[in-house]
Amino acid sequence: MGTHNHHHDYNFSEQFQFAGIAKVLSLVAIVVGIAAIAFGLLSSDHIMVERTYANLLLMGYYFTCVCAAGAFFVALQLVTQSAWSAGLIRIPQAMASILPIASIILLVIVALGLTTHNLYHHWHAEGLTDPNSPNYDKLVAGKAAFLNVPGFLIRQILFMGSYSIFAFILAKLSYNEDLAGGLTSYKKSFKLSAIFLVIFGFTTPIWSFDTIMSLEAHWFSTMFGWYNFAAMWVSGLAAITVILILVKKAGYMSWVNENHLHDLGKLMFGFSIFWTYVWFAQFMLIYYSNIPEETVYFYKRWEPEYKPWFWINIVINFVAPLLVLVDRDAKRKENIMLIVAIVLLCGHWLDYYIMVMPGTVESHRGFGFIEIGTAIGFVGIFTFLVLSKLSKHPLVPKNHPFLDESLHHQI
Amino acid sequence: MSNTKYILGSFADPDDMMHGIDKLQANNISIYDCFTPMPIHGIEAKLGVRPSRLPIAAFIFGALGTVLGFSLLFYTMSYDWPMNIGGKPSMPLPNFVPVTFEVTILLCALGMVATFFFRNHLFPGRAPRVMDLRATDDRFIIAIDAQENTDHTLIDGLLKEAGAVEVKYNERKYVSYE
What we know:
The complex is a heterodimer of chains A (about 400) and B (about 180). Chain A has helices at about 20-40, 45-80, 90-95, 100-115, 140-145, 150-180, 185-210, 225-250, 260-290, 290-300, 305-325, 330, 335-360, 370-390, 405.
């Protein structure tokens, strides 16, 4: 007993053609990125080199986070047995399947930054943990059981390695489902997703403690992991939305309509508020208790060179989505959603900027060719890899058990 | 003509009911309302139901909550008896955010429930009014105002043609649960 006519005329073998302007632009962006990074790294000024490393860490982490959010999205839809997303799941799947590449890039960045002392010098420097050294730092020495070079690198490899393996297998199973049909792949991915989500949930906070929080190793916040998770999830959703709308505008995926967009809009809206919630919870507890070793984090960010950006961060990532996306109709319009998603992606770049820079280049922060060029380069490589992946498989998992429900999704 | 106030077409299948709506509309017969035991996608658009105004009530109650929550904090913590807590100013805005936020949510939620109950006459002790009891169980009902649409034989024919299992001519608008 259905309420709909089950006839449809979508072309489910439709495949994305990655060519033309998208390909040219992403390759140009990669060249710009390489130029900016080379310009910074080859500079004789060590501050410039450090600034480039900070930007590489920022964008490498951002890139990995967005791809990990793609894997999280896929796993979440499988575990909740969601139907609405079946028609657009190939986009987060493409993001998830390039997570191994993103992870390797980030791993190279942190390993090089660590060994060249351009990153993490708050806890990795000569004599910090040696009581007889003039550089002895009691706080860092106390954390050395966790925060040491081998432990740090092993955790990076373990965490990103496990996310990558799950992301790769989940995408692979879905591609197999296209060929074989049946429920075998779906059931297998359901189980794998449940395991993945548990691992992911427990390890991403630790991963962000390692990668970003340890830049200022004297400071700590247990909210930091959730704060980073929120940023990762919002920027991942924004990336999915941007790719979806641009692919749709190019004439593909006619089965995805304003109802699916509306759901993505609700997620972006809700998790922007969640991001603000955790951001504020971290800020307010530190403000309230007023303990010097905690307030130092915000003290640094309230120095004149960071303070305007500190507030702009809240405006872009909270006020903008709140005011624009609160309206039902706004969430159903492609152009409004596209603009909000791009604003959020820029906003979370700024969010990461404020996390990374005061712990690395401090007052020597800049906003110029290195920052913009590195960001453009990573956007280029992300676009290139995701769209190449997207073009290799049909744009819809035609044997997905809930596909029909997704096609008739209405809210 | 007759004392019939409403004509109810009772369908066993939602597809048939949707089909019936199309048929009636094609013959310029205005539909008073439809009653179904489950949500049916696309029925609001088909019947031209205006979007709910509940969000407006939610906004007003939320704004009221913000004002009340903030006023309470301001009056007790900053105005009537300014308190020095941890050396903070007597009006520490970040500390006021959680309570203001919670009161906003509380009033918004309670106000929305109250508005919904009020609009649907669902206060305690009130017997709910329904036009057809089986619409809460297994039937899909189209209600037509019999005074506005006078050609009852045409309506009857259209409903049965669409697959109505029963057509009722009710002289009272509501049957009560009592």
